[in-house]
Amino acid sequence: MNRLLPGLLLATLWVFLLLKGPVWLVSLVVVMIAVVGGFEYARMALPRSAPGDRLALQLAIVLPVVLTGVLPGVGLVLGLFLSLFFLVLLVLIRYSQLADGGGDLARMVLGVFYVGLLAAHLLLLTGLPDGRLWLLLLSVATAGSDSAAYYSGRAFGRHKLCPLVSPKKTIEGALGGLVGGLAAALVAAVFLLPDVKWPVLLPLMAILIGVGIIGDLCESVLKRSMQVKDSGTLLAGHGGVLDRLDSLLLTAPFLYYFLMLGSGS
């Protein structure tokens, strides 16, 4: 129950936000996701660094997201460049106080790309025609895949998917997640995007669900290398923001560029 109720509340708020929320509120929520995600990543990546260093990394992570909202055309690239420059300057200034200057810089830059770059695509996606509906459809597919993978893995899981990274995940669970995610996406598409043809929707959703599984494993690699169980404790029973959005963060750019190429933009 301590997992179910927060999950339902978050899902309800997310659906309401994408269907009815004003543009400024959607942008604010995405920025807050980057703020909290940046805090979680900085805490994992720089556990022994000074609080000021972690705050600087958090700001560098959020900058591309903010500039994407303010300057939709060039904001993302400009934000990434400024964040990279800022972090290089920080490491040069703080080098004598850092235990591993090069390693710290590498982890910081990874955070900008893993959290900042990927989260910025949530904003870019909502700015496209029907972008909010596509993001909601992607969210439904991801949630359906996660739930189906969990239960099918518990019931039928025998063969490990990637044991050194995530020992509990199984091939049977991943296949169940694919089926469950596709089913959820097809049902939701009838209401959200009825004009999209199934010969396009089915392979697209299958690819995105597969990418989502990779996104989940990607965060597992980060947490294992940084020796933490969860990215945070903000969401009761669900870990941190990065734990909940690991699949969505990686799939949103895939969906965004598919829609951009499909529209001829």
Can you walk me through this structure?
- The chain has helices at residues 4-20, 23-45, 51-70, 75-94, 101-126, 131-156, 171-192, 198-225, 241-262, and strands spanning 160-162, 166-170.
- The protein has a two-stranded antiparallel ribbon.
- The chain has two domains: 21-127, no CATH class; 129-265, no CATH class.
- Helix 5 crosses helix 6 and helix 5 (101-126) packs across helix 9.
- The model has no long low-confidence stretch (mean pLDDT 90).
- The radius of gyration is 19 Å and the shape is globular.
- The relative contact order is 0.12.
- The longest helix has 28 residues, at 198-225.
- With 265 residues, it is mainly alpha-helical.
- It contains nine helices and two strands.
List the helices and strands and how they pair.
Layout: H1 4-20, H2 23-45, H3 51-70, H4 75-94, H5 101-126, H6 131-156, E1 160-162, E2 166-170, H7 171-192, H8 198-225, H9 241-262
Antiparallel strand pairs: 1-2
Helix pairs in contact: 1-6, 2-3, 2-5, 3-4, 3-5, 4-5, 5-6, 5-9, 6-7, 6-8, 6-9, 7-8, 8-9
Distance between the termini: 45 Å
Q: Uncertain regions: pLDDT < 50 for 5+ in a row?
A: none
Overall tally of domains: 2
Morphology call: globular
How many strands, which pairing sense, and closed or not: the largest β-sheet? 2 strands, antiparallel
Oligomer designation: single chain
Q: Which structural class best describes the helix and strand composition?
A: mainly alpha
CA radius of gyration is 19 Å
Question: How many helices does DSSP assign?
Answer: 9
Classify the helix fraction into a percent range: over 70%
Mean pLDDT: 90
Strand order across the largest sheet: 1-2
- The tally of strands reads 2
**Elements, N to C (H/E):** HHHHHHEEHHH
Estimate the strand proportion: under 5%
